[in-house]
Design goal:
The complex is a heterodimer of chains A (98) and B (599). With 98 residues, chain A is an alpha+beta fold. Chain A has 3 helices and 7 strands, in the order βαβααβββββ. In chain B, a hairpin with an 8-residue loop joins strand 14 and strand 15. Chain B has 24 helices and 17 strands. In chain B, helix 1 crosses helix 2 and helix 2 runs parallel beside helix 21. The chains are: A alpha+beta (98), B alpha+beta (599).
């Protein structure tokens, strides 16, 4: 991995927060990192999240919703979505109902 | 009748004379409209579109579908259909629990009430018979006490469906309450019941699951549907977001994308959303996860708040209600929300309309349109106004008319977040474009449950679409409207559509009822039901140009970062939608009615 040049704060909700035991996790990423890189690094830091984060369907995690600056990565480039410094990354449990 | 799944029995009750007639299901109608919502809409249509909703001439129908009370997963639904005193449209409102299953087990597909009883009355239903009983001692009591008294009188194992004092006082958005905290909330169906002096239904029945026409095919269809539910990221028991956090799992997701109407939709996100979210509630005050007949999901979230003035133990905090008494009113006091919901449940009031009328009143106060001071997030004032609305006291007499009429009375109709007289639920059309079209074209006024495009725009079912894109939303909404008319007509919970597709529905219907059906054919029935409702509304006075939204969503851009600058492109979406529907600016033409065999 290239030298670290940015730190992104990932905000966790629901299952993820309970598993990780914290709301915000700081993840150091190289330049040009993507959501895929972010997940890999996050799982290295918090292996307990692996089961929830690593199952993939159509280039996006199957059991969580990931938002970059409030946009669902499924509406962007999925796991290939770039993550820039200061981006706000949110990981939510699947939702539904009304 | 040859069809399986039905009890083949309907009671038609004339409350004026006390006459009760029993008849079988009309097989042609059952094949064309299935049951529950579809059949109820047909009966209301046949009763005429021009009648006064609060006159004895209106009918109120309680129905179940051919899959209600069967082994089919999530099949515990009951439907109430009537002409709405809030909107003037046909309306249908649904609840879960066990009353739907018990109505089927008691030997009925439907109960139809007409006329007006001389004194307060309740209907006791058991073993294929309906008996009218004096409810004078129950009149003036809340839903919770009424249920307690009737269960003491008739046994703990009965289902009680009742109105509270709000209905008795003809609050236009009164609900039918079932098993304490499950509501047929929308459209004022409780008001119609009260106008007939009908206080409650009591249903007694032991479990008696209808036998499918084709047992082997049913076993397979049921297994396939259950597998889809168990593997679904949203529904999977004790794993999926809906199962663990309930409907209020949506709060943070909708807020994050800038689609949470806040301060009467002056804003599209709420800074303190977490305090009122399902995630926070699950971690802090959750005590149980109640469920309904044949449902492995258990999305109800029973809570007990902290000791104090908002202490309450109640069955469920739903997303729409949490949003309404929370973000819409700029209120982040967690415990006040279950308390307010419970208060509305006891009075028998629709929480969505009530919270909207409060939010609108707060804006009216801020703009000094009214003398009464009602500050944003003033929870004590909110409680006071719920009491006053239910009793029609003071300003409550105006609020009891509903958000749209009250805003007009305050002198500024533009602050009413309503469509066709009914207030919006918890999705801002500037951040979720499909929901804007859904509100505008809903046949019962603003509603998220006629066509839940949020399933696609947030959850990703049947495929993910961008919530900020308007193109393609016409086709998406038509599919959801037709599909979800089927959920309501078969008698299964709409949440099943997160995992099941029209093919699952067709297979279960075919095997239970004995009528061969594929996905396309069953969707055509959904389309027929949606068009019949629309035709009724057209005849009731909702002509061309009736499908619109509050100007705020069309003209005032969102300020949230995720949806910044967006308004709702309603006209563009309507063109696409009407073309697919074959409607002329919202009106169903004769050739379409003929093509769908409605006329």
């Amino acid at each position: 991995m290239k030298p670290t040049s940015q730190v992104t704060v990932v905000r966790l909700y629901a299952f993820l927060r309970e598993l990780a035991g914290e709301r915000d996790v700081e993840v150091a990423l190289p330049d040009g990192a993507t959501v895929h890189d972010l997940i890999s690094r996050l799982v290295e830091l918090r292996p307990v999240l692996a089961e929830r984060l690593l199952a993939v369907n159509d280039n996006a995690p199957r059991f969580v919703n990931i938002l970059v600056n409030g946009k669902d990565i499924r509406d962007l480039d999925g796991l290939d979505t770039p993550v820039m410094p200061d981006d706000e990354v949110t990981i939510l449990s699947p939702v539904g109902g009304g | 009748m040859e069809l399986g799944g039905y009890a083949d029995r309907v009671a038609r009750i004339d409350l004026t004379t006390g006459d009760i007639k029993y008849e079988g299901i009309n097989e042609e109608d059952a094949r064309k409209y299935i049951g529950s919502r579809g059949l109820g809409v047909k009966w209301v249509f046949d009763n005429g579109p021009k009648i006064d909703p609060l006159s004895p001439d209106n009918i109120i129908c309680f129905l179940v579908g051919p899959l209600t009370g069967t082994d089919v997963s999530m099949s515990g639904r009951m439907t109430v259909v009537t002409k709405s005193p809030l909107t003037g449209t046909v309306t249908d409102s649904h609840h879960g629990g066990w009353s739907g299953a018990r109505l089927k087990w008691a030997g009925f597909d439907g109960l139809v009430f007409k006329g007006k009883a001389k004194q307060p009355t309740y209907a006791y239903v058991e073993a294929g018979k309906v008996e009218l009983k004096d409810a004078s001692d129950l009149w003036g009591k809340g839903a919770h006490d009424t249920i307690k008294i009737l269960q003491k009188r008739h046994g703990k194992d009965v289902s009680v469906v009742t109105i509270g004092q709000a209905g008795e006082n003809l609050v236009r958005f009164a609900a039918w309450m079932n098993e304490n905290d499950r509501a047929s909330g929308r459209g004022g169906t409780g008001t119609v019941g009260a106008s007939k002096n009908l206080k409650a239904l009591v249903i007694k029945a032991a479990e008696k699951l209808p036998k499918p026409k084709n047992r082997e095919a049913f076993k397979q269809a049921h297994k396939d549907a259950l597998k889809a539910i168990n593997e679904d990221a949203t529904l999977a028991p004790r794993k999926g977001g809906l199962s663990v956090y309930g409907t209020n799992s949506l709060m943070m997701a909708v807020n994050a994308i800038g689609a949470l109407p806040t301060k009467n939709a002056q804003f599209t996100s709420f800074a303190n959303a977490f305090n009122i979210s399902g995630h926070h509630i699950q971690q802090s005050i959750l005590v149980d996860n109640p469920t309904c007949h044949a449902c492995p999901v258990a999305c109800k979230k029973e809570v007990e708040t902290e000791p104090g003035k908002f202490h309450v133990h109640m069955e469920s905090v739903e997303y729409e209600s949490a949003w309404g008494f929370g973000a819409a009113c700029n209120n982040d006091n967690r415990d006040s929300i279950p308390f307010l919901i419970d208060l509305c449940n006891d009075y028998g009031i629709d929480t969505i309309e009530m919270s909207n009328v409060l939010a609108m009143t707060m804006e009216a106060s801020e703009k000094e349109l009214i003398r009464e001071r009602v500050s944003w997030g003033d929870v004590d004032k909110m409680v006071e106004l719920v009491h006053k609305t239910a009793k029609r006291e003071g300003i409550g007499n105006t609020l009891a008319e509903g958000t749209e009429r009250a805003a007009k009375a305050f002198g500024d109709p533009s602050i009413a977040m309503t469509v066709k007289g009914q207030a919006i639920p918890a999705y801002d059309p500037r951040g979720l474009k499909g929901m804007g079209l859904a509100y505008a074209t809903s046949n019962r006024g603003a509603c998220h449950l006629r066509g839940y495009t949020t399933a696609s725009e947030i959850v990703g079912v049947p495929e993910k679409t961008d919530p900020l894109a308007w193109k393609g939303k016409g086709a998406l909404l038509k599919l959801f409207q037709d599909f979800q008319a089927l959920s309501d007509s078969l008698g299964v919970c709409k949440f099943s559509t997160f995992a099941e597709n029209p093919g699952h529905y067709a297979a279960q219907y075919s095997a239970m009822v004995g009528v061969p059906m594929d996905a396309d054919a069953i969707l055509t029935i959904g389309e027929r039901i949606y068009n019949l409702e629309r035709h009724y509304n057209n005849l009731a006075g909702f002509g061309e140009g009736s499908d619109t939204l509050p100007a705020r969503f069309l003209n005032e851009p969102s300020q949230s970062p995720s949806s910044q600058g967006h308004v709702c492109e309603l006209n563009e979406m309507l063109q696409e939608y009407y073309e697919l529907r074959g409607w002329v600016n919202g009106v169903v033409p004769e050739e379409k009615l003929k093509a769908l065999q409605i006329i």
